[in-house]
Each structure stands twice: as C-alpha cells, then as structure tokens.
Amino acid sequence: MPELPTVPMPPLRPETLESLEHAGVGPMDFREHHVKDLERIATLSARGDPDAIEAVASRLQNVDWAVRFAAVYFLSEVVEKGDARAVAAVTARLADASADVQRGAVYALSQIARRGDADVIAAVAARLEDGDWRARKVAVTALPQVAERGDAALVAAVTTRLEDDRADVREAAEIMLRLSPALGGDSTPQWWSEYI
Fold first, then answer.
1. Which domains does the chain have, with CATH numbers?
2. What's the pLDDT tens digit per position in 131-166?
3. Listed residue (9, 113, 103) closest to 61, CA to CA
4. Average pLDDT over residues 24-48
C-alpha cells in the first residue's frame, strides 16, 4: 500500500480563508484539495488504519461544511464497524451547523455503529422528528441498519413516518418496513423471490 502523508493539511480558519480570498485564491480550491485528499486516503488505506483514521478525523472540524461532510462520509470508509472513537466523533457532527453534515453523520452512523448501540439508536431516532424532511428520510433508512431485529419501539417510530407530510419520507418508511429484517420486513422483495 502506498504511504500516506503523516501530517494532514490542517483545517482552514475563517481568517485564513479571508486572506486567501483577498489574494485571489478561492476557498473552492481548498475544498477540492481536502475532498480529493480524503478520497485518496480512503481509497488507499486499509480499514482500521490508525493514520488514515486520524487524517480523516482531523477534517471533521474544518471550517468548510463540504469538507466536514466528506470527512464524515470517508471516516465511515476507513474505520472498523463499532469503532467507539469514530462513533463518538460522528455523533458529535449531529450538532453540526450544516444540515448536510448532520444528514451525512446519520448515514455514517448507520455504516459504522454496531447493531443495538442504544446511544446511536436514540440519536438517529431523534432525527425522525427533525423539521427537515431530508433528515427524517435519512433517519428512516438508517434505523434498520443500527437496530436489533424486531425492536418494537423502532418499528413503531418508523411506522409514524407513514403519515409524514412528505411523500419521500412516507415512501422510505414503507420500503423499510416492508423490506428490512430489522423492522420485521422481508429482505427479499416479492418480485425477486421468483428468481431465487
């Protein structure tokens, strides 16, 4: 495996971005640098590599929401499932100023948390009541990945989304209830069972 840099580029402070803009260098250049660097690290690193985890996690505090979003996503690509530090770091992003980063954190938790983690389940389930329909939809699709099979409280919580004011959320809830084994559904769609 190619060697990764040992010192990742530090997050840019607002005053640094302002100085760069005055010099004619836009923040998009730095956003692109960070995101490409995160993708490269995730692509070239073995899952669980502590240097890769540190390099990606260091971007979770970046001033640019898109870099934080990418860091949340790529952290889920480099950590082992159940990594407590990663779960804590991603859970902290649920309070991010950016709604996009918050939704990314919900998705990432569904990828890195172990099934049955009560804190993660509570954090994701809380998003079912979010004012942003996209957050509710992500929570509906993430819950089956973190819940224990047949968790009656979660089945009830997802069932409430069948009455959501957004069709996207209602559809996601219907699909999850029908297909997710964690929510009591059948993971093999009816139409597919004819072929297996």
1. 1-114 (1.25.10.10)
2. 999 999 999 999 999 988 888 888 899 999 999 999
3. 9
4. 82
Taking only Cα atoms into account, the Rg of the chain, rounded to an integer number of angstroms, comes to 19
Q: Which of 9, 24, 133 is nearest to 64 (CA)?
A: 9
Given a contact cutoff of 8 angstroms between Cβ atoms, the answer to whether 112 and 83 are in contact is: yes
Alpha-carbon gap, residue 62 to 12, rounded angstroms? 6
Kind plus residue range of the DSSP H or E element containing 190: helix 190-193
Residue 183 DSSP label:
G
Q: How far is Cα of residue 69 from the mean position of the Cα atoms in its chain?
A: 8
Q: What's the one-letter identity of residue 140?
A: V
List, in order, residues 6 or more apart from 29 with CB less than 8 Å away: none
3-state secondary structure 46-81: CCCCHHHHHHHHCCCCCCCHHHHHHHHHHHHHHCCC
